Amino acid sequence: MSEYFRGIEEISIRNLGVIESAEIEFKAGLNVLTGETGAGKTMVLTALSLILGGKSDSEKVRTGADRLVAAGRFAITEPLVSVIEESGAEVESGSLLISRSVTSDGKSRIQLGGEPTTAGKVAEIAEELVEVHAQSSNHRLTKPTFIRSTLDSFGNHLELVGQVAELYREHQELSERIEQLRSDYQNREREIAKLTEFVAAFSAINPTLGELAEIEAELNRLGSVDELQQAASLALNLVDAEDFSVSAALASAKRALDHAAGKDSELDTLTESFGDALYTYQEVVGALHRYLSALDADPIRLEYLQERKSAINSLIKKFGEGSDREIAFTQLIDRARESSGRIADLEGGEDRIADLERELHLVFLNLSKSAHELSKSRRDTAAILQQKITSELRLLAMPHSSIIVEVLSKQGSDIGDFSASGLDEVALLFTSHEGAEPGVITKVASGGELSRVMLAIEVVLAAVHQVPTYIFDEVDSGVGGKAAVEVGRRLHLLAKDAQVIVVTHLAQVAVWADHHLVVRKSEGGSVSISDVVALNESERSVEIARMLSGQEESASAQEHARELLEMVRESVIS
User: Fold this and answer.
1) pTM exceeds 0.85
2) Most confident listed range (149-153, 372-376, 447-451)
3) Which of 334, 342, 331, 318 is nearest to 188 (CA)?
4) Interval 370-392: pLDDT, tens
5) Burial letters for 478-512: b for 16+ Cβ neighbours within 10 Å, e otherwise?
């Protein structure tokens, strides 16, 4: 697998529904899962949902088992590696392990990179790893935020959207500042006096963020000098005394082993490990000697730190808010940073308010200009996007269907017309045949049509809004024949830019797979490790024949299967 591969490498499942145990390896390109009804194909997607932070359900635990376990290994790249490691999880050689267990009484545990975490945290990271499409997830098409972000991704509006959001935030903050200043102006002398007193008290101490924790750590060490000296000295006496030194004993043992060097590779390996242990031991003992020599009582420093801690606590007690001392301390530092500006605002009086209002007006003009520019670009982009999605739908055997990306913009004459995303509401409208009145897509499209619309959107956006892995379930719902072939073709196209995993019951979709997996049930009705297998070309023909006719032994079905596979090979080559 390429070092640049991103996506799901493998998942393991234990005691989930009909699956007793399974190890499933996924590859780059189009991965297809097939199997008879009830064989457990959808349980694979259930396992992935659990791994990715989805809702746990004790009813999914296999009958007779006390818990289910699902784990997935993901190949990831920067910058996601840094984000995950900052959360305390471990990423090994670009691979991230996520594991989830659910007990029969409903208790759920999840680990991210070997560290316990929450399903919510994993779900956040999962958004950067996997995009799941099923009829149950197509509700996103009703959300204006999803449609708008889709349009902005396609139009490469990220910088302009950020600019509008920042100007809107700046306008909101300035408005609140002016409002607060007007409110405080009536009592400005009292407010100035309060702020001046606080600034003077804070400046006299001038604490820094994190200082209180550092003081307490040093006080704890200085207050325990005798105990620390006793522990370090005792340890050194045990391992590095004049009459007996572990270092000397280890060195003698190492020399004895060196005499047999080259005579047995196993002993040579042990000798090398012995040398490493000796080096580590000497490093630790040296560090312990240095620690002990530097560990001196410092009553002057101790007294200073105690007074400093008392002064900071008094400042927090007098000016802080809330019962959490650390939060109150952080808020005091933020307040001190802002106080000089607040005093300048209050001393400036009406002139200061006028200056801020002029600044507010300038920000509004810039916001209006950027938002109108964004609106125009969205309208231009919408025309292109709807044409591309409609073209994709017609390739998906929906020849008379059309998508309309509707951008409704407010005038922008008042700040109330704006939001952090600009002036626009974006909607996705759909018609299934020519001459029909466009309607909200989730109200006028069937489940199968919705799945194909989502597939069309992903194919169009793949070059600009790519996630490592796309998972499709029920994407072939309600289709067959030529339409199914075209669904498979578009999934194969999407798989050129990302890993795609599809659960399907249609041979016309399965023939497009780069990696074909079949899930079978044993005679006892369960699925074990040996029942999830990757198929070679000859085995694929048999499976495709089964999917076509239900009779894998049928010569005509196998011939049809070979024809479909040959059609795909010719299509890929051309």
Assistant:
1) no
2) 372-376
3) 342
4) 999 999 999 999 999 999 999 98
5) ebeeebbbbbbbbbbbbbeebbbbbbbbbbbbbbb
CATH number of the CATH domain containing 10: 3.40.50.300
CA separation for the pair 130, 47 (Å, rounded): 14
Rounded to whole angstroms, how far apart are CA atoms 46 and 49?
5
Question: Residues 42-56: pLDDT tens digits?
Answer: 788 888 989 988 888
Structural domain count of the chain: 1
Closest CA relative to residue 475, chosen from 134, 12, 47: 134
Two structure tokens written together for 380: 């231009």
Token readout for 502 is 């599809």
Q: Is residue 69 part of a domain?
A: yes
Q: Interhelix angle for 325-395 vs 299-319, to 10°?
A: 70
CA proximity to 410, closest of 419, 397, 400, 398:
419
Sheet holding 30-34, edge to edge: 130-133, 469-473, 499-503, 30-34, 515-519, 532-534
The answer to whether position 389 is within a domain reads no
In a domain, 394, yes or no: no
**19 is in which domain, residue-wise?**
1-129+467-534
Look at residue 436 and give its three-state secondary structure: coil
- Phi first, then psi: give them for residue 70, nearest 5 degrees: -135, 135
Question: What are the CA-CA distances from residue 338 to residues 150, 212, 307, 334, 344 (Å)?
Answer: 39, 21, 27, 7, 10
> pLDDT at residue 529 above 70?
no
DSSP letter, residue 141: G
* Rounded mean pLDDT, 67-71: 92
Using CB atoms within 10 Å of the CB of residue 423, give its burial: 0 to 12 exposed, 13 to 18 middle, 19+ buried: buried
Query: What's the mean pLDDT in 503-507?
Result: 88
Sequence-ordered list of residues with C-beta below 8 angstroms from that of 531, at least 6 positions apart, any chain: 22, 519, 520, 521, 522
pLDDT mean across residues, the chain: 83
Stretch 22-43: mean pLDDT = 84
- Other CB atoms within a 10 A radius of the CB of residue 451 amount to 26
Residue range 310-337, pLDDT digits in tens: 888 888 888 888 778 888 888 888 888 8
In a domain, 160, yes or no: no
| Pair of tokens at residue 258 | 């060196």
The 10 Å CB-count burial string (b at 16+, else e) for 215-236 is beeebeebeeeeeeeeebeeee
CB atoms within 10 A of CB 359: 15
Give the mean pLDDT of 292-320: 78
